[in-house]
Design goal:
It is a single chain. With 175 residues, the chain is α+β, with helices and mostly antiparallel strands. It has a domain of 101 residues. 47% of the residues lie in helices and 19% in strands. The chain is built from four helices and five strands; from the N terminus they run H-H-H-E-E-E-E-E-H. Strands 1-2-3-4-5 form a five-stranded mixed sheet. A hairpin with a 4-residue loop joins strand 2 and strand 3. Helix 2 packs across helix 3. The longest helix is centred in the N-terminal third of the chain and has 52 residues. The termini are far apart.
Length: 175
Amino acid sequence: MANNALGAYRLGGVSDDRRADDGFSLIELMVVVLVIAILIGLALPTFLGARERAQDRAAQANVRNAMTAAMVLFADDADFSTVSAATLEEIEPALDYVGEATVVTAGSQVGFSLQAGNARVVMVGLSESGDCFYMQTDRGNTVNTSSDQFAIRDQATGGDCRANNTGDLTWGADW
């Protein structure tokens, strides 16, 4: 009888000890959740920033591609007089071109404006992040007097993203 009681005690004791060691305590789980939350808090702004930068680069690429299409027309005519939505779309059909007074929407839409007696063209594209990217090329009717200038403006503070809305822009050598 003593052996049975001792055996029951040992089995019960072993069983109780195993239950105490099985799984994780609530505090251990809370520490893991806290560590994961901290890592997410640190990583999320980085990923959001990367997304906005990618959206901005896509809009900039669209504007540069549109300007390249306009430069093809300039090479043929020595000015930008033949630049129109139709002629630009013949050269670069992946973009949707709109005139200078049309508000540009985000995506593949690019606005254009002819200025200075067809010697200058302005292109504008809107990023999904809300920034308007402008590029102007002034050729002065000769290939030798050329300059490319860039500007950026937040649509929320600068008004509509249009190719003829350039009065308050600060032009520079890059975006």
